[in-house]
Amino acid sequence: MEAPTENLKVAPDDEAYWLSISATMKPLYVNTQLVNTRRGPAPLVVREKVRSLVDLSLSYELDEHEPFRDMKESGSSAPIRSMLADYFGAAADEIALTRNAMEGIATVLNGFRLKPGDEIVATNLCYDSNLAILRQRALRENITIRLVNLPLGPTSDSDILARFEAAIGEKTKLVSIPHIFANTGLVLPVQKISHLARQRGAFTFVDGAHSAGHIPFRIEDLGCDGFAACLHKWMHGPRGTGFLYIRRDEISHVWPLFATWSGKPNHSIEKFEEVGTVFKALPAAIPEAIIFNQEIGQAEKTARLRYLRNRWAARLSTHERFRLLTDIEVAPGTACGAFVIEGMESEELARILLDEFDINVKVFELEDPLSKGIHLSAGLANTVEQIDRFVDAVLRY
């Protein structure tokens, strides 16, 4: 079941248009890449912008020299922060530029004020590095972590919310969740979880590494207190760029990773940007990445990504040996999907696809060794021919 397309500027199956977008990206893949969760290929306009600034970034001593005169040592600037705020639906004084999602995640998970005996609620679907940060802090500060176990396969918002209702208690001060569980494409009901957490006096922090540029949303509508994302995945920006949002009233409750050397006040979002010297050619190309996304349209991007996923998932779902771990009926849907195949190990199928068909997919495994499957996430640079060739190859086994 596809999402409504009548209000889109371009249909998700308009192959001539999407081939023209793919032509502006030209990823340098050595095989058919059907995994775009680690990084999305930057379009040529972004790559050219970075290339044009490499020599300048490496040779000039004075930051005041054009074109970096408006950029801080961290690479941030008021215009860049305003563009990010406008795109993602927040105020510019709630957005800090970071070098990646992990920097923003580590800032909040390490810096949110807690005391011994406090409790953090997270989920088994959190990224493993996020859980590592929380576990280190728990050991260091005598803090309790409670994991909400969510099913690997399809579920419902009501089921997810019920599990969080049971987990968030009077000692819970921080709730840490992913916006999208990338392996299966599950989108958590962030707005409902945030509302529940706030009612119970807890700070909600969202890992948005896989939702920024992937699905339509406005941070102000999510109701969360913190949100971190990178720009090199679904925004197709330069690697080494990202942002951190913290709700204005909560900024003073989070310590920065680096002490502010310029005396930024505790309530200033800019205290999170004083991280030392960065390679300014990367953040300087953020405007080109944002414009690239704006010209396509977020709703159009999401519809195309969902269309590519459903093109393979719908065909596999009709074969009894394949069990989808993704609900392809849920809107708006994502690029991400996963499945298991009866009678064959996921690693073996992935090896065959790469060795015999030159197609790359991902085998994932959660901490529970039984929670394993094959993940795909086609991106804007992929074509329907590549998707169909993958399905034809898989069905041979």
Can you give me a brief rundown of this structure?
The chain has 397 residues and is α/β, with parallel strands linked by helices. It has two domains: 15-42 and 296-394, Alpha-Beta Complex (Aspartate Aminotransferase, domain 1), CATH 3.90.1150.10; 49-292, Aspartate Aminotransferase, domain 2 (3-Layer(aba) Sandwich). The protein has twelve helices and 15 strands.
What is the approximate shape?
globular
User: How many helices?
Assistant: 12
The CATH level-2 architecture of the largest domain is identified as 3-Layer(aba) Sandwich
> What are the low-pLDDT stretches, counting only 5+ consecutive residues below 50?
none
Order of helices and strands: HEHHEHEHEHEEEHEHEEHHEEHEEEH
Average pLDDT score: 93
CATH superfamily assignment of the largest domain?
A: Type I PLP-dependent aspartate aminotransferase-like (Major domain)
Report the count of strand segments: 15
Percent in helix: 25-40%
Fold and architecture overview:
There is one protein chain. The chain has 397 residues and is α/β, with parallel strands linked by helices. The protein has two domains: 15-42 and 296-394, Aspartate Aminotransferase, domain 1, CATH 3.90.1150; 49-292, Aspartate Aminotransferase, domain 2, CATH 3.40.640. It has twelve helices and 15 strands. The protein has helices at residues 15-23, 44-59, 78-88, 101-111, 128-141, 157-167, 190-199, 219-222, 286-296, 298-317, 346-357, 384-394, and strands at 32-33, 95-98, 119-123, 144-148, 172-178, 180-181, 186-187, 203-207, 226-230, 242-246, 322-324, 336-341, 359-360, 362-365, 372-377. The strands form four sheets. Strands 2-10-9-8-5-3-4 form a seven-stranded mixed sheet, with helices on both faces. A four-stranded antiparallel sheet has the order 11-12-15-14, covered by helices on one side. Strand 8, helix 8 and strand 9 (226-230) form a beta-alpha-beta unit. Helix 4 (101-111) packs parallel to helix 5. It is globular and about 65 Å long. The relative contact order is 0.18. The model has no long low-confidence stretch (mean pLDDT 93).
